[in-house]
Amino acid sequence: MDAKSANLFQILSEELRMAVDAQSIRKHFSAGDALFREGSYIGSAAIVAEGVVKIFRVDEDGSSHFLYFLSSGELCVLSALCCMRMRKADMRAVAYTDCEVMFIPSPYPEVWMQEYPEWNRYLLQSFNLRMSELLDTFDSVIFRHLDERLLYYLLQHYNTGGERLYLSHQQIADELNSSREVISRLLKKLEDSGFVEVNRSFVRILPSITKSIQAK
């Protein structure tokens, strides 16, 4: 997939789409690979061309906390900020599925802000989208009980990555800052309620989970 075919790129001019394709460095990542890690210098703004990427915040103890997904055509705004400010990353990006990512090296992300008004619109749209998702995550952590947070977490995966969640109970617990035993118990309750099917290697998220979220 080239830049032209990604949804968010529809707001970019043909000239700028060609510039993105020409200047970006494309890399392939397998599911589970890290695009970049906390503490590393990021010299490029990352845009997902194909696949899905998960963004995590890492605390001082090394625990990672899931923030949001990036899908095809979406810019990692945190990487863009680090690139333009020449600072170390304070987050981790991991390929959720096999994916292809375009890395736009400095100074192009900042130069294009002066040359292309639509690049600024694309940046602002990306910032607004991520801010909305971060507020949803904040609300989930602060105002929801763990069972509701798990439902919201599963719905995010269902809407972005499909019905199969290939994570262990321990991995889900780590991302929700809980324990494996608690998550296993909650998943069993959701299975009994008809919202998921728990298998040995994955959790199948059923369409009925959307109705559960709407009812809350």
TrEMBL record:
Question: Record's Pfam families?
Answer: cNMP_binding, HTH_Crp_2
Would the keyword Transcription be found if you checked this record's keyword annotation? yes
Lineage, top-rank taxon, reads Bacteria
Q: Does the keyword Transcription apply?
A: yes
Q: Where are the transmembrane segments?
A: none
Q: Name one GO cellular component term.
A: cytosol
The record places domain HTH crp-type at 144-209
UniProt keywords (A-Z) are: DNA-binding, Transcription, Transcription regulation
Q: Where is the Cyclic nucleotide-binding domain?
A: 8-104
Annotated GO molecular function terms are: DNA binding; DNA-binding transcription factor activity
Do you know which PANTHER family this protein is assigned to?
CRP FAMILY TRANSCRIPTIONAL REGULATORY PROTEIN (PTHR24567), REGULATORY PROTEIN YEIL (PTHR24567:SF26)
Name this protein carries in UniProt: CRP/FNR family transcriptional regulator
Species source reads Acetobacteroides hydrogenigenes
